[in-house]
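User: I need a structural model of FAD-binding domain-containing protein from Talaromyces pinophilus for a docking pre-check later this week. Nothing fancy, just the predicted structure tokens so I can convert them on my end. Input:
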Amino acid sequence: MTNFLVHFRSPDLERLHKQGQFWHIFFCNGGVVISQNEKDIWTVHMPLPPDTNTELLDPYEVVFKVLGGSSRGHKIDIDEILVTSAWTGHICVAEHYGSNRGQVFLSGDVAHQNIPLGGYGMNTGLGDPFAIGWKLAAVINGYGGEETDVEWVHGEGQGTVISTDEKGESLRDRIRSHVLTNDGENKCLGVEMGSRNFPSPIVLQGTDDLETPEWNEKNYIPSTSRGARARHVFLRDGDTSIHDLLGFDYDLVDFTTEGNFASSFKEAASHLGIPIATVHLPNEQHARDLGNVALCCLALEQECHVTFG
Ligand SMILES: Cc1cc2nc3c(=O)[nH]c(=O)nc-3n(C[C@H](O)[C@H](O)[C@H](O)COP(=O)(O)OP(=O)(O)OC[C@H]3O[C@@H](n4cnc5c(N)ncnc54)[C@H](O)[C@@H]3O)c2cc1C
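Assistant: Understood. Predicted structure tokens for FAD-binding domain-containing protein:
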């Protein structure tokens, strides 16, 4: 299919954020809206049949239609249409990356194209000249030979990868298992969300046998173990995340009715010059249970939870 892209400027946050703040929204009609700067620059993509004459499309109407999802259009104020274009997703790869005599090399989209959803096109496009650069340097400086990289399908024979015979099946199995075990660039929630400050001089070392979930780079396991990122939980109003209440430095969440623990801790912190904010949540039993707070805060008679904001 073809996709029509409209890049535009609109300060109409009231209507754009009608369903709340977002980065991407994927609508049931196949359209997408992307917030580019959290302020006034946006992009919509609208899927269309491949034979559509996109020159006849009105970009304003396209924006309204995408934002309306599967219902009628959702009008917003638009200050300026910045760019419109049409694009079609491809997955393809050139048969050769270099000329026979090794004097010309291809890089970027002309050598291989990816559907943009993974965000790999420009990344791999920039990777090519880098890879060509160090290999060329090796050849020119005399320490590199003519061997090409071993690729997945190298030497397997034309068409093996799509053949239905045993050889094709086994090659596909090898590629599948390679992809599954080397997918770190798009499955790395453990790296993105799961970093821990433990052991650390700023985190209380307890004597109990608190269990810390196993860490791995692919998965993030929300936890309130010592030094872990404070876990997200919605509060009783069903709308506010506990993260919305945390500040920039240290936060102390006090779930007790009176809130005395937080205030005494704050006093001590202020005496030591430690920037600490307190969040008093007296009626949040669910958050309190989920947070395992009793396990986390030995220093405060097992009632509070110290986190990084
Ligand atoms: C909607 C969308 C979202 C994307 N998002 C991402 C992303 O998040 N991350 C990412 O890494 N990649 C993304 N990409 C892919 C990325 O944009 C491309 O992979 C990248 O631009 C390719 O760069 P390039 O220099 O190889 O080719 P191009 O950017 O296509 O540059 C080729 C240039 O050559 C010019 N040209 C063509 N023919 C001639 C000629 N005969 N004479 C002179 N000039 C000519 C063209 O006008 C063009 O300017 C996205 C692509 C799309 C469509």
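Before docking, keep this in mind: Residues 192-308 form a domain with the Glutaredoxin fold (CATH 3.40.30.120).
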